[in-house]
Amino acid sequence: MFRKTKIQLVSLFTLVFFFVLSILGISLYLYMQKNSLASIDEKLRHKETYLIQNSSDELNEEKNERESERKVSYLFWDKKGDLLLSNPKNAFYKKEISSFKPNRNDKKIRTQTTGGHSYRILIHVKQKDELENFPSAATIQLVYNIDPEVNVLKKLLLLIGFGCSVGLLISFFIGLFLSNRALVPIQRSWEKQEQFVSDASHELRTPLSVIQTHLELLFRHPTNTIEQESTTIYKGLTEVKRLSKLVEDLLTLARTGSNEQLINPEFFSMDELLRNIVEQFEPIADMKDIKMEDEIEGNIIYFGDKERIHQLLVILLDNALKYSVSNDKITIYSYKEGGNLRINIEDTGTGIPEKDLPFIFDRFYRSDKERARATGGTGLGLSIAKWIVEAHGGQISAESRLYEGSQFVIKLPIKNHLSKLT
């Protein structure tokens, strides 16, 4: 898939760069051609004006010009199209002169190639009161050799052609480089998506298989009462709840990449929210003989999504309880630190292996998969926690030592939020 996309991108980049280079080269050539011919045309018009005003002096003036300079040649034609006079006399061969013969369709100024030479020709149609020294003349041609300009333009065209050829090669390598760079994030996203789908399918398959198994067990004893099959029903219901939570978490993570608004901020008391959550978890901790302590700074008003912050804290406290055993301790700290609200959740539980610590916020990542499955974990909780913190403009980090405990640190900005109250 990516190979085909890469070829398409390289082709597109190459064509675009080559097209731009070609346009620039052609524009340069046309600009130089226009400027060269414009200066020659201006000189021919100047000669034409001077010839009309001072016919005899103009021809004599040409004799006084330096030999090294290119001269304007004059060809006088009668009404029948016969040559009356050529000045200078030996400027052209007879075969060349015949090719200059004017006709009605000729433009005022044109370019003509004859005998391997290029000329710029200005045609002047004689009026009644003009050129009294040449009464039989009907048309006068002012002819100027433009070989030097044509040669320069040919060399320029060759250089442009060579430059475009080199540019085509360069644009191919640039296109290859840019396509590789462009495909890197896309390929990573694709791989993550494939991994996500694979992991989600695996996680969904397990509870579905369990539910199917327990439903099949019910059909083995169709005459049994609900009380007799209560254990089987309870196990199936447990898996349904686990499946429902997994689907809900998957939907939450899927929506984080869309434009759907998932954060609904409001002002609320953070210390009150923290104390309510601690009170909810204290009975569970007592049942597991785990001690819970808190040091929560009072009068902290925060602007954020109360439900999402509640979800964040529940995820972290639930993890702390799952990986703590009898006589362990969980401590919750909350206080202002500069322009941030800092929340620490520490435990003295089993901890996280050092090799797993950098990946704990990845989706479906679990350092101890068998244990996580036994405790009902899906590997999505910490991913959701990280998203909630980042959606509020904050940061979350973790520190842990195996068999010594873990600490999750949350920093949420409150400076801007508090300013809205005043």
TrEMBL record:
Entry's Gene Ontology molecular function annotations: kinase activity
Substrates-to-products reaction catalysed: ATP + protein L-histidine = ADP + protein N-phospho-L-histidine
PROSITE patterns: HIS_KIN
Main location: membrane
Localization per Swiss-Prot or TrEMBL: Membrane
Pfam families: HATPase_c, HisKA
Domain Histidine kinase: from-to ranges: 199-416
Enzyme class: transferase
Key words, A-Z: ATP-binding, Kinase, Membrane, Nucleotide-binding, Phosphoprotein, Transferase, Transmembrane, Transmembrane helix, Two-component regulatory system
Position of the signal peptide: none
TM region positions: 12-32, 156-178
E.C. number(s) listed in UniProt: 2.7.13.3
Database matches in Gene3D superfamilies: 1.10.287.130, Histidine kinase-like ATPase, C-terminal domain
Protein name, per record: histidine kinase
Protein's organism: Ectobacillus funiculus
